[in-house]
Amino acid sequence: RMRSFLGPESVRAVNALAAAHAAGRFDALRQVLYAHQPPEGSGGYTTQDLLDLAAGIGLSSRSFTDSVRNMSYEAWVRRIDDQASRDGNVATPSLLIGGHQMASNVMFDPTAFKQALGLS
């Protein structure tokens, strides 16, 4: 799930990702956003930052830029973040399997991860 709890910049970023999805370019924009992630709480990811990063990967259609500027997906962004919180997804990264949260020390240890999934 996409989360947007870090402030207005994360709401803008997830909105831009939703617009990129509509344009068939979600993963390309996701990669560039992670590569240029501003410090948390810095107010980064202004609308212009998002448009500039997207343009760098060839994502500059009128419908995309209008969606980013107008925050066309903001209600959806807030709704999915609220639902994730209600579902117990309160940390990133977070992995739920069978309704149980997997500890990060298991999630990032390939041997422990396989064992937790019953694959070893």
Which descriptors apply to this entry?
120 residues; mainly alpha; 2 strands
Question: What does this entry look like structurally?
Answer:
The chain is mainly alpha-helical. It is built from 7 helices and 2 strands. The chain has helices spanning 8-22, 26-35, 47-55, 62-70, 74-86, 104-107, 110-116, and strands at 96-97, 100-101.
How would you summarize this macromolecular structure in one to three sentences?
The protein is mostly helical and 120 residues long. Helix content is 56%, strand content 3%. The mean pLDDT is 87.
What coarse outline follows from CA principal-axis ratios? elongated
**SSE pattern:** HHHHHEEHH
Strand order of the largest sheet: 1-2
**Percentage beta strand:** under 5%
Report the count of strand segments. Answer: 2
From the alpha carbons, calculate the radius of gyration and give it in angstroms.
16 Å
Helical amount: 55-70%
Poorly predicted segments: none
For the terminal residues, how far apart are their CA atoms?
A: 28 Å
Largest sheet: 2 strands, antiparallel
Number of helices: 7
**Mean pLDDT across every amino acid position:** 87
User: Structural class of the secondary elements?
Assistant: mainly alpha
